[in-house]
Amino acid sequence: MKKRDLGNTGIQVSEIGFGAWQLGNEKDWGKMRDEEAIELVNKAVESGCDFFDTAPNYGSGKSEELIGQALKDKRDQVVISSKCGHHPNDEQDFDPERLMVSVEDSLRRLQTDYLDSLLLHNPPFESLNSNSPQFEVLEKLKQQGKVRAYGASVDTGKEMNELLHKTDSQIIEVMFNIFHQEPADAIQSAQKHGVGVIAKVPLDSGWLTGKYDATSRFGGIRSRWSVEEIERRGELVKQVQRIIGNDQSMVQAALQYILSYTGVSTVIPGARDIEQFKHNLSASEGDLSLETKGELEDLWEAEIKDSNLAW
Length: 311
Hints:
- By secondary structure, this protein is an alpha/beta fold.
- It has a single domain, classed as TIM Barrel, CATH 3.20.20.100.
- Helix content is 40%, strand content 14%.
- α5 links the parallel β6 and β7.
- α3 crosses α4.
- It is globular, with a radius of gyration of 18 Å.
- 47% of the residues are buried.
């Protein structure tokens, strides 16, 4: 597994990380036994993956619990990133006292006394500055040794730039994929600032696996898409497939597109089983051609950039 620097934190991470939203999250991802989840995490470590991204509201805290059980004897081998602000009951509350309690609860569930990375979980834009009480909490936790590095998880380049210029964030997690290329310039800026970048939603909630098309219909959290949005995405998937050809999987191409940006430290696709995880991991075995990358960027410029493609 290839490694990359997590900005200037002094931490190195596997370029393919492990997004753990699915662990213990039957509502959005379907049933997975605890034993299967723990085995999946252990297999990931054995395969060279050492970066694990979770949050208190993933599976109502179950994701953190399962990661804690799986990694308690491997803590020195892995990098754990969690979040605060979205609570196990799905309530969003960035009150400083709630954040402090949230982090203590995360440490307990994860069976560790420190987090390598702590991120505000999609906080209000007005809090993205060093004078906000939220960032004062993050700095306090770092001074206490409970957090090695901190930042925020956001969705846009605009939010990234606010963090880069108005906070001491060392890490930023941002939504970035073939269908959501808007943060690209901010990612390059983060690299110049020595800030590590975690790329979230890399497969666009499953669309960039190639398994969905214009006729697909969804339940759970994916029911947010209208029929018209599904049909549009289906057409875009066809165009991506045409660009990458039939000799490479869409998953590999989608992850390699993100990793073609040297400012990205790690990408965090989810996986429900070891086969999906191995497929994700295979993206680390090659590189996307400059020609293909250019065509994918042209697709975004022509078809997506100036329109609303809600994630």
